[in-house]
Design brief:
This protein is an alpha/beta fold. The chain has 9 helices and 5 strands. Helix content is 46%, strand content 17%.
């Protein structure tokens, strides 16, 4: 690791956090905020925010912190506070980083890899099968509709062999969906 900057982890009250103008995400800032808020309400904040102290014109700290990494999480937390699910002073775990704000924001947004849809389909199915969650409960915990959950659980029930072909790029989502019409794995393999 070549960065010699010090990173401090500390809880910061939600009402002391402000969005950073240096956050590189310009497009889709508000996308998925409802889903993210539902997830945070159900599971807690799973990833800290990256922040740095806000300074006034004289270079003195103001007591506020700009969020350079986690602008969508900040928006979801503020939505939960507005709905009185959490307090406005909710203690948010933050990484206080003195590095370049824009570079920190870029690193957080570039290096992540989205979950493959097949993994999500199977995980929703396992939540129902192994934990007894219904479609409505899963939907509430992840901020989607029960209809979406039922669709994804049905896709998660497709034959593991076909699911692997989908993961490997040998089937499209539409093709996989056609196989989900039948829950009979032998029949799916035959087709």
């Amino acid at each position: 690791m070549t960065n010699t900057e010090t990173t401090i982890i500390r809880d910061v009250p939600l009402n002391k956090l402000v969005p950073s103008a240096k956050n590189v995400r310009r497009t889709g800032r508000e996308a998925g905020i409802e889903e993210l808020a539902a997830s945070i309400a159900a599971h807690g904040l799973l990833q800290s925010l990256a922040v740095r102290p806000v300074q006034d014109a004289d270079g003195a700290e103001t007591g506020k912190f700009s969020v350079t990494g986690g602008g969508r999480r900040l928006a979801a937390l503020k939505l939960l506070a507005k709905r009185k699910v959490i307090a406005k002073s909710y203690a948010v775990p933050c990484l206080i980083n003195e590095g370049d704000e824009e570079e920190v924001s870029l690193a957080e947004n570039v290096v992540r890899e989205p979950l493959h849809p097949a993994d999500q389909f199977e995980a929703f199915r396992r939540l129902a099968d192994e934990h007894g969650f219904g479609a409505e409960e899963i939907a509430a915990r992840f901020g989607v509709t029960p209809h979406v959950v039922r669709q994804r659980m049905r896709l998660g029930a497709v034959s593991p062999k076909l699911m692997q072909v989908y993961r490997d790029g040998g089937l499209t989502l539409d093709q996989l969906t056609a196989f989900a019409i039948s829950e009979d794995h032998a029949r799916q393999a035959q087709v």
